[in-house]
Amino acid sequence: QKEVEQNSGPLSVPEGAIASLNCTYSDRGSQSFFWYRQYSGKSPELIMFIYSNGDKEDGRFTAQLNKASQYVSLLIRDSQPSDSATYLCASPGGKLIFGQGTELSVKP
Amino acid sequence: DTGVSQDPRHKITKRGQNVTFRCDPISEHNRLYWYRQTLGQGPEFLTYFQNEAQLEKSRLLSDRFSAERPKGSFSTLEIQRTEQGDSAMYLCASGREGEFTEQFFGPGTRLTVL
Q1: B100 vs A92: CB contact, 8 Å cut-off?
Q2: B107–A93 C-beta distance less than 8 A
Q3: In principle, which of A61, A102, B4, B65 could form an S-S bond with A9, CB 3.0–4.6 Å?
Q4: How far is CA A71 from CA A92, B43, B74, in A?
Q5: Do B100 and A93 touch (CB under 8 A)?
Q6: Which residues are CB-contacts of B3 (< 8 A; sequence separation ≥ 6)?
Q7: Where are the alpha helices (DSSP H) in chain B?
């Protein structure tokens, strides 16, 4: 059974700082990961996906996948109060296996 | 609006009653997924369909839960003899066929069992 683990936080960063969100996984066969953002009371929305080892950048977001360490992370540069949400990493493969989510709070 | 829709958005019921939720996926998506989310946790997979075929059902899903997608379009999730532990947000998602394709989530149905 695949497992995906996240530090539930909350993680608090000041506006303009870099927020670092981390996820570990148990299945060595996992090839890719999704990062979803979920605002309070809303449903998850996909913000990043990474299919290979290394980094993937999209605007202020960078996803990093390290298959050797079974570790995936999401960096948010120049954090804004509007980034305050819960961030979920998910292992795809038909169904999604989600971590428990990390709550991020960006303070003005 | 061509996104995933769910109905009702909120349901309050008494323990022991049956409830049914509906999900209408994005029309061109042939896969439809049901997840359950409780406070402070990530969504937990329940079951999914490809067209009208139910391809996988979570082992955590008790016999009181049943889902259908009779014509490969909308889906229903029924919970029989509800228990207080069933209180959660029930999320529906749809996507195209494939292992690594994005799933688009609906707004969810929040169930409260008294």
Answers
A1: yes
A2: no
A3: A102
A4: 15, 20, 37
A5: yes
A6: B26, B104, B106
A7: none
What sign results for the dihedral spanned by CA atoms B27, B29, B34, B38?
negative
- Nearest-neighbour CA in chain A from B3: distance (Å): 12
Q: Mind giving me the DSSP string for A30-59? A: ---EEEEEE-TTS--EEEEEE-SSEEEEET
Q: Tell me if chain A has a CB within 8 Å of the CB of B55.
A: yes
Q: Distance between CA atoms of B62 and B80, rounded to whole angstroms?
A: 10
Per CB-CB distance under 8 Å, the chain B contacts of A88 are: 42-43
Q: Report how far residue B22's alpha carbon sits from residue B40's, in angstroms, rounded to the nearest whole number.
A: 24
Residue range B3-33, pLDDT digits in tens? 999 999 999 999 999 999 999 999 999 999 9
